[in-house]
Specification:
The chain has about 475 residues and is α+β, with helices and mostly antiparallel strands. Helices cover about 30% and strands about 20% of the residues.
Length: about 475
């Protein structure tokens, strides 16, 4: 004998509606972001937020809602925005997806009311947490129909009362800047009569546009000046439909202090997000492909960051090297006996400097041809100049020359590895290793940087004077350094 089928009713406890709002969002201030985004979806051009100690009011001039619109508004999990993803007037990509954002306000207040106008319809719906829990199985909210002139133009106002804490306008502004599309055209948000504007960052800008099988990935990375880098708000803002969902580092956690110089945003509207809008569904194919694309983008950013860092460092090294060489030149001019190049010529005191000296041909009993032959025999054979064994330099090498008459030395500051010598010479070229730990330490400050460069260069010049007597070379170096830094 076959029995008739039985059924179990599917029910949801009414308190769960409140729990959604209270526990779904990590911060209670998130509800303001959600309400502003609802206004954006409704083609509002202006959202006014009024914050007092006891209340928060969010007014917009969007399309408003009629009776059916209000029913959809309070329909948890409504699919309406999925079926109509574009707003009717401005064609905006609608942000709302799950229809539960408005309940986030329950995490911050005891009561909220929605007043809306669409053409001749004006209605008010009130949600009171205490009354909701008292009414048992009654799943209804009171709707009050208001006169058509109760509100002048279409739009919606949400008023929150019974706040459980005070909300600071500056905190609300920060959340609006990050979590709403305030850069969109025809859209403005004001808080207590103050217009909210996007953050403006200055620095080296790196725009990018990449394609995926799910849609485009676009954005801009900004490398901040060192003076503007901060340790807060690290990472790149990942936006979906112009709203920041989360900041991601994309591997920058291994970059050390340089990470603090990198900011920016990336837009990927195809990314699937979690229901609380605070993260992504990371095991989705969309997110995995997105991460792969951003890995390549960030490799390019890393190269650019290194180039900018080296360029700035090179300018600093160039200035310090120039200062050190000017001081050394002054010291050698004052102490020509310490110079391995001889005295520095001044004016026309030494005739023929840098050219062949005059030779007298007035020798008795010798014809001109014989004189030439004799001179040829006596003349020492010119030795072929050996080319200096120049090290293979990097593109970032800093090279400057200090010249004494027709001779002098070339000074090269370049990378030769942490284990390389601090300084060394080949022929008339002095190589200084910028990777050496001591050089790095001394280059941190301008004064010590110049002094250290002068120490290294005078050390090598003094050894050129007499490489077989290092003690005397040390004494010569001490005198040169002293005279170089006497102002």
């Amino acid at each position: 004998m076959q029995s008739s089928p039985e059924f179990i009713p599917l029910t949801i406890d009414k308190s769960h509606i409140i729990t959604i709002g209270e526990r779904m969002y990590a911060e209670s201030i998130e509800f303001i972001r959600e309400l502003v985004n609802n206004a954006y979806d409704a083609d509002a051009t202006l959202v006014e937020i009024v914050v007092t100690e006891d209340t928060i009011e969010i007014r917009d001039n969007g399309s408003g809602m009629d009776r059916e619109g209000l029913k959809q508004y309070f329909n948890i999990g409504s699919q309406q925005k999925l079926y109509a993803p574009k707003s009717p007037i401005y064609g905006r990509d609608r942000i709302g997806q799950f229809g539960i954002g408005k309940f986030a306000s329950l995490s911050a207040c005891k009561r909220f009311e929605v007043i809306t106008k669409k053409d001749d319809f004006v209605g008010r719906v009130t949600f009171d947490k205490e009354q909701w829990e008292k009414t048992g199985d009654v799943w209804q909210l009171p709707l009050e129909i208001l006169p058509a002139d109760f509100r002048k133009q279409n739009g919606t106002t949400v008023i929150l009362t019974g706040l459980d804490r005070r909300f600071e306008p500056k905190d609300i502004e920060a959340k609006i800047i990050e979590g709403t599309p305030i850069k969109a055209p025809h859209f403005r948000v004001r808080i207590n009569n103050h217009t909210v504007t996007p953050r403006s960052l200055s620095g080296h800008r790196l725009p990018f546009l990449e394609g995926t099988s799910f849609g485009p990935v676009s954005g801009e990375i900004i490398i901040l000046p060192e003076t503007a880098s901060v340790a807060s708000d690290l990472g790149i803002e990942v936006k979906v439909k112009q709203v920041t969902i989360k900041r991601e580092l994309f591997g920058m956690e291994t970059w050390g202090k340089s990470m603090a110089r990198v900011r920016g945003e990336v837009n990927a509207d195809f990314l699937p997000i979690t229901s609380d809008r605070t993260g992504f569904i990371k095991d989705s194919n969309e997110y995995q492909e997105f991460v792969g694309i951003m890995g390549k983008v960030m490799e390019g950013v890393k190269v650019s960051l290194q180039k900018l860092t080296i360029r700035k460092e090179s300018k600093k090294v160039s200035r310090a090297l120039k200062d050190a060489l000017q001081r050394i030149y002054k010291a050698l001019a004052a102490n020509p006996d310490l110079s391995p190049f001889g005295a520095i010529p001044t004016g026309d005191e030494i005739k023929g400097m840098g050219s062949a000296a005059e030779v007298s041909h007035k020798k008795e009993g010798l014809k001109e041809e014989e004189i030439k032959a004799e001179e040829k025999l006596k003349a020492p054979e010119k030795k072929r100049k050996k080319k200096p064994k120049v090290k293979r330099l990097t593109p970032n090498a800093i090279i400057k020359r200090i010249k004494f008459g027709e001779t002098g030395v070339s000074c090269v500051v370049d990378s030769f590895g942490e284990d390389g010598s601090e300084v060394f010479s080949e022929e008339t070229t002095i190589f200084i290793n910028r990777d050496h730990p001591l050089y790095k330490r001394e280059s941190a400050k301008v004064d010590t940087h110049v002094l250290n460069l002068a120490r290294l260069i005078t050390q090598e010049i003094s050894l050129m004077k007499d490489p077989r007597n290092p003690r005397q070379a040390f004494e010569r170096q001490s005198k040169l350094l002293r005279d170089a830094f006497i102002d």
